[in-house]
Amino acid sequence: MMRIRKELLVLTYVSIGTTLFFFLFINEEKSFRAFYLTFAISSMYSFFIGLGNHFVNELLNKKFPWSEATTKRAVLSIISLLVVNFLLVYVCNYINFVVFQKSATPEEFFSGKYNFTNWFMLNITLLISAFLHAKGFMDELKKTSKKEVVEQKLIAKSANAQFESLKNQLDPHFLFNSLNVLSSLIDENPVQAQKFTASMSKIYRYVLEQKDKELVTVEDEIEFAKIYCDLLKTRFEDSVNFEFHVDKEYLKKFVVPLSLQLLLENCIKHNLATSSKPLLIRIFTEADTLCIENNLQIREQIKESAGIGLANIVQRYSLLTKKNVFIEKSEDYFKVKLPILNDKPNAISTIVSDDDAIYERAKKRVKEIKGFYGNLISYCVVIPFLVVLNLITSPKNLWFYWPMLGWGIGVASHGLSVFAIGINWEEKKIREILEKENRNHGK
């Protein structure tokens, strides 16, 4: 309601302004009747055309918002500008010349006598309507940019908190399991317990160093896994065997840290391991994945698992990359495939800092669009002035076509360079920029 009142107030001011202009500088008759007639005609044009475009724009905003269907909305806006304004101009001109001024009969009006007047008025109306549609787009763009930047920051902070929570599970989880192993060894083999303690200190140092990283090289993770396997071998001796077959080409690529340690723990925890039936655990590379496989010797679970290991790895990968962790299970073996990443992706912990860069790109995008609409607004203001000046000073020599055409081509080219209607935008509108960043980081 407030917006409609504002529109009506603006249209009233426009009506008064155009009335004063035509009455003071164009009309030869300076009488109250002439002023009243000029005001009625100006108000008719202003309110008919202004409100007509307003309601069409509002209807398109509800059905095809700029932020959700930009290309379709642009096409529909152009079509609506032409159709609606053509009808409005002809209706207004008919009422003006046939009803108010009585300077033409209906037959004369439709005979072609007023074609130039209709065409001239239509061009002026289209320029003003284009300005109104551009203003509506800018208003929605500002609201969308503010909303999306706030949402992106909230998403980034939430994702970062989630990732930190997952990483923080590793420290107490590893310590708890290691102390359980040590407790068992103290009773079974005190000498081995001492060796285990020394190895545990080295491993725990690695845990402390790597747990705050999103990714580590395959080489580092394999070296850690070998040390951890030695630690397990200390306890289980011949009951557990390990094999490593990792291609050198993958050593400098990346995986989630401590993933092998968690999966090794799962292998031990969920399977029986005895000297007569040893558990074989193989770690190898296969088609851009780091695999850990064990023969199935399912042990009966006394209590329900906490579910930290595999679930933790799956969640951390899902926050870092679109690639999935694959799980294969048969009657004979259980295999987990960890994606090997060629490069470090823009991980969750960098989203918060990258969010400022995203916002800067968004601001740059807004600046480009504002530059285009500044050009369009200037065109809408200057060209009508040149048309009026031309018709007043030399109506027989119509030179305004040239600046209108030349500048119009320039505005159209500027619009295509900014929006690239018909193909993808260079960075698309702000909503798409931010959603793309969110998809890249959140999958």
From TrEMBL:
- Keyword set includes Membrane: yes
In this chain the 2TM domain maps to 360-434
Cross-referenced InterPro entries, in alphabetical order?
2TM_dom, Bact_2-comp_sensor_kinase, Sig_transdc_His_kin_internal
Bilayer-crossing residues are: 7-26, 32-53, 74-99, 119-138, 372-393, 399-423
Q: Which UniProt keywords apply?
A: Membrane, Transmembrane, Transmembrane helix
Has UniProt tagged this entry with the keyword Membrane? Answer: yes
Q: Entry's Pfam families?
A: 2TM, His_kinase
Q: Where in this chain does the record put each Signal transduction histidine kinase internal region domain?
A: 161-239
UniProt protein name: 2TM domain-containing protein
